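in:
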């Protein structure tokens, strides 16, 4: 695992150094040295602080807010490592920014998720490790291997151990039914679906609930929570339909704009998220947000990729 010409090295930018440290602790290796700074004009400067020639390198850098800065850090670090003769570079984009722009939803708009995939590949990445992509087809935007992990097993363990009441798993839209069905099958529960109409980006209007939630503990599940409008409106509707309590789960806690205030004032009992994106103090101080770590899942995936082993076990 640490042979001279195939050493495993973990680097990180400024997006989520705490997650990188947790992954290094799991793998029992030190975090590799790199200086990632910003000049006064906003330009990013990267200097790799150790020899990486022939190394198997992983960059822990979710492209979360500030998305453009974190994306540029990832691209510049990748370029620096490629020019330093790293044997293979894997971009660990635990959260893949621009993932919602995965198709032409209107005339004369870009497919930015594909553009970002091209940028990462052109910079020199030879593999991508991601978690809960907004759309599974984003894997096909890359012409390099993509290992797509899921937070569902981590969420399942928490729900099973901490929410023992009569549960109904709820999808906040029709597109998330498959994600909800996986957990519903594992927990042996029923499912429900929120039927909503989206008037404009980041705004939604909940219309109806398909399924029985009366007298049950409703658990909303989504891949990400951004401004929290959808999830909070959904919680209101579920309570109106007779749910006893409403919990919400999401892999990626983007929590931009009015999200924190909306969650504090909502009918959501607890919001369960993972640490793919670091939370700020305002989010932590709400008392409503529980953060689960995915460092072991990502660390084990990194170990198996490095050793050319299967990662199928991580989906169970």
């Amino acid at each position: 695992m640490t042979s001279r010409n195939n050493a495993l090295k973990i680097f990180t930018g400024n997006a989520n150094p705490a997650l990188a440290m947790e992954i290094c602790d799991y793998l029992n290796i030190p975090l590799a040295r790199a200086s990632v700074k910003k000049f006064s004009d906003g330009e990013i400067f990267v200097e790799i602080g150790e020899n990486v020639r022939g190394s198997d390198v992983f960059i822990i850098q979710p492209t979360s807010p500030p998305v453009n800065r974190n994306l540029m850090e990832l691209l510049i670090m990748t370029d620096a490592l490629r020019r330093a003769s790293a044997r293979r570079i894997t971009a660990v984009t635990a959260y893949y920014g621009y993932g919602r722009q995965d198709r032409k939803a209107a005339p004369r708009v870009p497919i930015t998720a594909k553009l970002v995939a091209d940028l990462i590949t052109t910079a020199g990445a030879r593999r991508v490790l991601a978690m809960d992509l907004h759309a599974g087809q984003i894997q096909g935007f890359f012409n390099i291997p993509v290992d797509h992990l899921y937070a569902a097993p981590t969420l399942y363990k928490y729900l099973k151990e901490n929410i023992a009441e009569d549960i109904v798993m709820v999808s906040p839209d029709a597109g998330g039914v498959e994600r909800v069905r996986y957990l519903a099958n594992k927990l042996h529960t029923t499912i429900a679906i929120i039927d909503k109409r989206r008037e404009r980006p980041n705004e939604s209007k909940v219309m109806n609930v398909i399924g029985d939630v009366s007298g049950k503990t409703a658990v909303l599940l989504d891949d990400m929570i951004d401004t929290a409008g959808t999830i909070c409106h959904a919680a209101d509707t579920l309570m109106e339909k007779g749910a006893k309590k409403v919990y919400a789960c999401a892999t990626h806690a983007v929590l931009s704009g009015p999200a924190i205030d909306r969650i504090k004032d909502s009918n959501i009992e607890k919001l369960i998220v993972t640490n793919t994106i670091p939370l700020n103090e305002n989010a932590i101080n709400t008392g409503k947000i529980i953060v689960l770590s995915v460092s072991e899942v990502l660390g084990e995936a990194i170990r198996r990729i490095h050793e050319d082993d299967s990662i199928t076990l991580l989906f169970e």
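note: The first strand starts at residue 8 and ends at 12.
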